[in-house]
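Deviations from the work plan: none for this task. Representative record:
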Amino acid sequence: MGLLSDPEYGSVKWVRILKKVHRPLCFLCYAVALVWFVMLANRDFNNETYFSENALLPGLVTNEFNGEYAAKQYLTEFEQELEEKYYDTEKIPVPWLVAKMSQLHLEVYTHNYTLNYPLGQGQIYKGTNVYGILRAARTPSLEALVVSAPFRPLSSHQKSTAAGIALMLAFAEFARPQKYWAKDIIFLVTEHEQLGMQAWLEAYHGLQSDSETFYTTLGSFWKPGSFGLDLTNFFPGFDWLGSHKKCLNPGQLKARSGAIQAAINLEFHSPKIKYVEVKVEGLNGQLPNLDLVNLVHKLCVKSGIHHSYKNSYSWVRNRNKVDDWVNNIWTMVGMVSTQLAGVPNGNHGLFHRFGIEAVTLEGRDSSDGPAPRVHSLSAANFHRLGLALETVLRSLNNLLEAFHQSYFFYMLPATDRFVSIGQYMPSLCLMCAAMLLRALALWVGVQPTQERSSQAEDPVDSEAKEPGERPPERLSESSNQRVHNRKTIKEKHSDSESEIPGEQDVKEVVQSSDERVANSQTQLNFSMVNVGANYLLVHVLGYAAMNSPVLFTQLGAKYFSLPSEVSVYYGLCVTSAVLVVAAPALPRLLRRGALTHEELTLVNILVLIELSTLCLALGMHNFPLGLAVAALYTPVALLSGVVVRERGWISVWLQRAACAVLQPLGALTAAMCVYSVAVYGGAEGAAAAAGRGRDAAMQAVMFAVADSLIYGNWVFNVAASVLLPVWVVLWQIVCNSVEGPPPARR
Amino acid sequence: MFNSKNFLFFIAVFIETIFNANGDLFNEELFIKPLPPAHLYTYFQFTTLVNDNLSSEHTYLAPRSLVEVLTRFQVDELHFTLTEGQWRHNHWGYPVLDAAPGAELYAWFSSDVENVDTQWKKLSSTLAGLFCASLNFIEDFNTITPQMALQPTGAIPQNPNITSQLRYASLPREIVCTENLTPWKKLLPCESSRGLSALLNSRMIHNTNYHSIGVHTRKVCSSSDCSVVSLEIKQTVALVYDSKIIRTTDWSFTKLFGQGLPGGCPLASSSKVYVDITTNDTQPFLLSPEPEKVLLSQRGGSETKLALYTIKPENKMTTIGAKYISKKDLVLMKLPPLYFNRYVLGYGKEFGGIVTELTNTFWSSIDVVVLQNAPWWLPIQLSSLRINGEASSEMVLARHYSPGRSRQKPYHLELLLRLPPKSATKITIDFEFVFLKWQEYPPDANHGFYVGSAIITANLPTARNYTSLPGTASLFESSINASKPWYPAVFRTNGVMVSLPTPDFSMPYNVICLACTVVALAFGPLHNICTKELVLKVVGSSVTLKQKIINLFKKKKE
């Protein structure tokens, strides 16, 4: 606050130093941030995982799982069933699953759900989940654990999960006669991958698409029925509000258990897997409690199963510290890239939003991924997998409270190491601090100009006489008042100082003779209204872009009969192109006079603050996304500044080019193209590979939009409604050249 | 040896005659019903009828400790159950007496009692001591006075405001164990030495899927015009075994209770075992030994076959058991006419909803009273009540709502509903999460906060799956061929659990640390300013770096 009210700071020592060193300081901050992140992967800078929740009592029980034969039997039967009856369809074998589960004396139910696909021509998808509840003895079904497996048809391009389902059934057979369960166990087989899981979870928690009594904001940013403006009245041809309703109708569950404490998702294609990958990343980058992740890793060790997380393999122990470090860096980078898009990499990821801790265990072979020495590993079998599942569930069964200890925000550089939020946040904070430093430097750079311009009357007078200058009447009263206050305070100070005798008299004359004119002259270069209007307009445009995909789909289908992904992608491309061309003119259109240096500087300050706030806010929810945005946009935000006409054109065009590259949609497409050229370029030729990249970008945009509408993934929403406007404002700043600051400044 | 046994028997008969002369009647019954596909229901009922004038000084077969409590606090009717587990109505049908998970206590006080609340508090505290249960946690803030849901089953003089003498409380968090069973067994005339109660081996019965012990006392008419009433004390045990957990579908006393039956209680007028063999048609099993009699009971359109065994006190060790002949795993379950489900909606820590789903599978409409009882920390708002999504429903015939008051009174909602034939009804009510005071959180690790079961009172038009006794009857045999226009039943839904927003309890510690640091930091400079003299320093020429360093060393020397 002192900075804002103290008029003397212009000459304070630190301000002068700041002005001098802020540029190198900012880049130093940025570099330190990156180094910090890399250092976190080093063993000396991260911690070993430990159990925080004592109630878990991991591995204290004697394992009893004996369902190896049953699991094999189930696997054969299931595969036979699929090949005989389901070879040409993608349907889930409901009767078989129901029969098997009821033979085990579980309470078996099916659950139907419907998806009204929001981005198409009214396609409707239906699906069925099957679940069986093992009711624990002597409990009134207050708590539950979930064991789930996605069902994949034979025609699926993904690996089958038949072994996972077989293991689940064998485990259910083993667990049903046990009397020690304190929580119900729900065995769930979902159809259509994540859609089925999402529908089941929504139905379990009673989120209905048409429910009015229940307060829910599941439709990402929208609350059903809260959108006041009904645009259908204006454009009867289009279903504008279609996207605001929930498109997934989760249906009804016939029975349920209590509050779900934890969930384990199984993806095993065969019992003879080499190792288990523990997948943790969830929707919007949410992670399960570290205790659960740790539990699964530790109990895999105990059950004699090799396990891995990204690049960190339990059976590989680097002697060399540097190798270890590099490996850990790659594991963290892998984690960042998975969390970045906010898309869960398994069915476990959808549980997290409901406050349920969940992980996926995926069985892997030598064919998946570049794991070293995987051929020399002994293959797992149903017995060992069952033991692992048993110990994990019996440990979870011991839980006395919902998971609340340990960490919810962390990074994993290895299966047994972690970096807590307190350790990784500084790297993001440093990047944001760099932007804020720059904003501060700009702010203190603006202020003294006014001071002196009002003191030295000549330039102000000359400017006031310029034609086309706005008349003082148009100024808003508040800003007027503020400037006035500032001026009086300042004068009081100069009274006490009285450095130069005689100056005080001059000021008083100005003040008394024509106070209003003097005030308005100080303000001339600096109108909040113009700046604000432009700023607001850009954000409204961003909000419109966020809501546009449904419209694009319908337009594309109606006039060009294009598939919706093409129309959405090109619609967004056109929007971006229009913005690129038109945006720089916006600030000029909104006002009569020429743009001034001060205005653009103020805009620059605002955009720096907004960008750093965005990065921090993103980082609090989804650290990798915040980090990635900060890492990409900080350099540009630091480099770009108000363009002064007399400046050399090389630096100006460099700024513009740097800014143009980072246009969100353009950056995505470029990244995809570069990636595909790098991967497929040699084989297919650069052009074809680039086309492939464009298709990938198209898919990515489409998935982001659909995820946002169906699952509540907010990456697209943030990119369109905040990141895009920030970029547009930056683009405006670098594309508009203005007169330099008044000579008094120099 | 033979002589002594004969002598013992003689004494037993002698004692029995004496007691019978005094008018106290004690009957013990055991009802066993297989619940296909995988469960077995056993229900013990020990009924003592005190025909004599009630006095707290002297009792014959009735437990004095209990009678003393009843007379002291002028209790007309008392129902007390301790239950572990949940009765699954849609799979198991209906129990003889339903009970809410945890502890449940309700009582009607005599109309002479003026200050019911004080008596209620005293009664619950006394029973807490008697049964080693945490009934002393019954306070005003978890006690309600149901208006429609509960009606006295005994003979109570007609009184228009009978409900004002009623108090109801449930403690869903109560854990039931051996320590409750032992004092319960002490109330029986033969305790656990002889008779059916000898089967109640706590090691075995706490291993079941569901167990519930209860004490029910009421006044019954002993003359035809009901001018004379006598006290009936009924002690019950309900157990549900899971054939998967006991690892066999075949059952016998030794398998279920760990031992055979050492003969009936010599003090009992009758000791009978009934086995429901209706399922014998679909899942044939052989009883051993052969039953004395097979009774056919026609009741409300459904037919029940009961195998009867009479246990004599002089009997040797007997074991009744069943062996299944063929194993048919999948049995089509017959759904009861009415079943229900209760669950919590939503996620997060702001809002939630409680849903009670009622399904009427019968072809005619059923009238039910639904009593929802929410603790004060779970404020349910009547404005958010929806029945099948509608704010005002034709199904509601009557409604009673009494809003709760923070830390004083629970929320209490009763609805009289007419459920249409073959329909499912969903009653939704929203609640807000509240912050408790920090001392109100349980001290130990806790799963969450328990919300008690809802009570559902129904007049069932059919006796399908119905096993309860007729209202006025005391003994199980009176339920045979007892057709009535309707069959009253009181059910409990499952309880639910919510996890209230829990603060970080280490925060006060952190705050103290932080505050102390701040105080220390503020105090230092203040102290410095207050205690040191300010001296003006002559501003001279600028000091060189070298000079600065020298100054630094000089200061240190000083």
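Residues 507-531 of chain B form the longest helix (25 residues).
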